[in-house]
Amino acid sequence: MTDRSQLSHGQIEEGQALALDFGKLAKVAACGQPLLPVAVQDADSGDILIVAYANQQALDYALTHRVAAFWSTSRNELWVKGATSGDFLDLVEVRVNCEQNSLLYRVRPRGQGACHTRGADGVARPGCYYRRLVDGGRLEPV
After folding, report:
1. Among 32, 34, 47, 58, which has the highest number of CB atoms less than 10 A from its own CB?
2. CB 104 within 8 A of CB 41
3. For the segment 98-140, what is each residue's pLDDT rounded down to a tens digit?
């Protein structure tokens, strides 16, 4: 595995080197908000699009406005998916896991994609899981 500090943001998002962020949950905890992880699933295809975090404000917004909303742990603010890109995720339903410590947003994408990255064609990728791990340490496009 490659040391993340040796890679640019672009290399992490587009490259073939495996550089997992095992410190992510510590960063989430450090943002100072009580949060739950949220898996986001396309209600029609079943594809997992993204994993994010929600606090009560984000969940309330999502339920009221029927669009996926999260708490941005990097900006420490409400993040309404699509507010900047136009790639909204219309909320179909919210599910709660057995221990009530994570959520599943089932959505219908409205726009070009769900991921903030773009493919070679310049279009937003449908979801964030666009590479697979092969040979125990290299990433390749799906």
Report:
1. 58
2. yes
3. 999 999 999 999 988 899 999 999 999 999 999 999 987 899 9
The answer to whether the Cα torsion of 78, 115, 24, 66 is positive or negative is: positive
Distance CA 130, CA 93 (A): 24
Instruction: Look up the domain containing 118 and give its range.
Output: 4-141
**Rounded to 10 degrees, what is the CA torsion of 4, 135, 50, 87?**
90
SS3 127: coil
Concatenated DSSP letters of 85-116: TS-EEEEEEEEE-TTSS-EEEEEEEESS-SSS
Please name the residue that has the structure tokens 């917004």.
61
Domains contained in the chain, number: 1
- Residue keyed to tokens 């975090």: 53
Q: Which residues are 54's β-sheet partners?
A: 36
